[in-house]
Amino acid sequence: MASEPDPVRGQELFKACIRCHEVGEGAKNKVGPHLDGLIGRAAGSLDGFNYSGALKSAGKDGLVWTAETLDQYITKPREFIKGNRMSYLGMAKTEDRADLIGWLETISRAAPSDDVTPDPASTIVGFAESVLALEGDPAFGEYLSGDCVTCHQVSGNADGIPSIIGIPKDYFVRALFEYKNNIRQNEVMKSRVVNLSNEEIAALAAYFETLQPQ
Amino acid sequence: MTQFNRRQFALLLGGTTAAIAMPSYLRAQQKPRVVVIGGGAGGTTAARYIAKDSKGEIEVTLIDAAEKFTTCFFSNLYLGGYRDFESITHGYDKLESGYGIKKITAYAKSVDKAAKTVTLADGSTVPYDRLVVSPGIDLIFDSIEGYSEEAAEIAPHAWKAGPQTQLLKAKLDAIQDGQQIVMVAPPNPYRCPPGPYERVSMMAHVLKSKGFTNSKIIVLDPKDKFSKQGLFQAGWEKYYPGMVEWYGPDVHGGIKKVDAAAGTVETDLDTFKGELLNIIPKQKAGAIAAEAGLTNDSGFCPIDATSMRSANDPNIFVIGDASIAGAMPKSGFSANSQAKVAAMIIRSELTNSKAFPAKYANTCWSLIETNDGVKVGGQYEPKDGKIEATNNFVSQNGEDEAVRKATYEESEGWYKGITADMFG
């Protein structure tokens, strides 16, 4: 590497990751695992996080996260570990990756929260709270999921469209709420979600939470 | 050691004798049987969902004349050089090994609705309790004077993916700078509304990539407007200036005659000559649909909007391009969506599983040039006996490059998703 990594830029670049990952003091799991203690950790090895089969077997086969392996992974996650469910497409520039990993190496030395269970999405008052309080019917969710799995693969593979398999209910409800309200913007998602009732969203969330990535 | 008394023995013997005398399907029947005709987006999805969700309680048979299926969707990307033929061709092996579906590779010739059997080309019959008919489209060759199945060997339609698509690709790749392509677009209703115009884009992409700026693509359209017209025309102007000329009926006055050997298309206005003619004629439901008495005067099949059940027979469901699905376009996505509704209803009738209200969805992505994808779609529900849109969306002109690139990547993801949903 020609120059030293720039941690300030690294922290800025991490904005691409924060929707799914927390890192630093008191980090918790989100839709992705927390990244504290990442360097030196075997891939897919955090207890209590619902990894894809692909990531777990990569860890069992000896993949350990180091600056070098992370660099390869982040370049094009889907090519480095085929069938993993991280939806991130990749960071093309060597310099960007070096800055990001340089910052991660320092920040990830912090200790995670005692309880890394994801926080509920109740920061969105009203809607999300009332939907989260509903007991969704997974059988109804399975039927409704027909609309989802034409694009989001049931295997948990993410090939240009994010995986939604096994994701926490809170996160799922919040995401659909955000599509409904143009906080997240995607016309296909908005079209699918805009007419869903609260019961239907709860049913879908309950169903997808039960699925295991293959 | 087992010992039979006389009565048990007689019963056993009697049972065996009777079994031999009975038709084979009655003897074997323990489970309800669903037969699916057509191994495309609708048929595979219906077969897979019924087999998967009934967890072995329903015997599912899938009939298609082909060993493998080439998707019409993304076949334009093969023409454009973005994909190889292999990547859009899929086998049925996982449906057989992973879901216990029986695949019969044969042409389904007719349906006996009273006996509830499908007759195959060799005369053998396949019994059903419920039949799903998903044959896609057939082309009405003689809807354009001079066009025929034979003429399609010179002037391909390539509107059913397979050898026709490969023929069109070979002819496209053989075009020299300065030579002309003439496309005749189909009248409504037809499979894949944006398809002809995505194809024009992909042809232009190939010509432009070779620096063939003197070549032209003429589109003769029997319609006065078409799907995503503003998006396509803006794209053609941006990427392929002067290369694409689209003429509606107000300009050409009517398409009169095709001469494949001479390479000409005659219209009221003029006779257009092309080194490559791509003739996409009027369409109707696949032959089995009319043969089975499921079509109306339109050549397509009326259905019940809440279930995709044929209006003409309670035991038959028609899905995909062959059906008259109200506001839904004829697309692979629509067929996949309709298949799930039909599968859910069929399962509820045969195994008393819970039925839910029908909901349908569609999205059609098209590629205009590398990393410039657009989409159109909507959500649908039955309303007053018809399938109607509850919402619609379409890409906008002037979107920034990142949005268009993301749309293209989304379409790639969808292809992986829907083919996994179809073939397991």
The number of strands of chain A is 0
**Number of helical segments with 4 or more residues of chain A:** 11
Average pLDDT of chain B works out at: 94
% residues in beta strands of chain A:
under 5%
Tell me the Rg of chain A in angstroms. Answer: 18 Å
Uncertain runs of chain B are 9-27
| Shape call of chain A | globular
In N-to-C order, the SSE pattern of chain A is HHHHHHHHHHH
Estimate percent helicity of chain B.
Answer: 25-40%
- What oligomeric state is this? heterodimer
Description of the molecule:
The complex is a heterodimer of chains A (214) and B (424). Chain A has 214 residues and is an all-alpha fold. Chain A is built from 11 helices and no strands. Chain A has helices at residues 7-13, 53-60, 67-75, 77-80, 94-107, 127-133, 138-144, 146-149, 169-180, 187-193, 198-210. The radius of gyration of chain A is 18 Å and the shape is globular. With 424 residues, chain B is an alpha/beta fold. Helices cover 32% and strands 26% of the residues of chain B. In chain B, strands 5-2-1-9-20 form a 5-stranded parallel beta sheet, covered by helices on one side. Chain B has a 4-stranded parallel beta sheet with strand order 13-12-11-17. In chain B, strand 22 (360-369) and strand 23 form a beta hairpin. Chain B is globular, with a radius of gyration of 24 Å. Classes of the chains: A mainly alpha (214), B alpha/beta (424).
Summary of the model, kept short:
The complex is a heterodimer of chains A (214) and B (424). Chain A is mainly alpha-helical and 214 residues long.
Q: Any descriptors?
A:
heterodimer; A: 214 residues; mainly alpha; 11 helices; globular; B: 424 residues; alpha/beta; 5-stranded parallel β-sheet; 4-stranded parallel β-sheet; 24 strands
What's the layout of helices and strands?
The complex is a heterodimer of chains A (214) and B (424).
Chain A: H1 7-13, H2 53-60, H3 67-75, H4 77-80, H5 94-107, H6 127-133, H7 138-144, H8 146-149, H9 169-180, H10 187-193, H11 198-210
Helix pairs in contact in A: 1-5, 3-5, 6-9, 6-11, 7-11, 9-10, 9-11
Chain B: H1 6-21, H2 24-28, E1 33-37, H3 41-53, E2 59-64, E3 68-70, H4 75-79, E4 89-91, H5 93-99, E5 102-105, E6 108-112, E7 117-120, E8 125-127, E9 130-133, E10 137-139, H6 163-173, E11 180-184, H7 195-209, E12 216-220, H8 229-239, E13 244-247, H9 249-252, E14 255-259, E15 264-267, E16 271-273, E17 276-279, E18 283-285, H10 287-291, E19 301-302, E20 316-318, E21 323-324, H11 332-351, E22 360-369, E23 372-383, E24 386-394, H12 401-423
Parallel strand pairs in B: 1-2, 1-9, 2-5, 9-20, 11-12, 11-17, 12-13, 19-21
Antiparallel strand pairs in B: 3-4, 6-7, 7-8, 10-18, 14-15, 15-16, 22-23, 23-24
Helix pairs in contact in B: 3-11, 3-12, 7-8
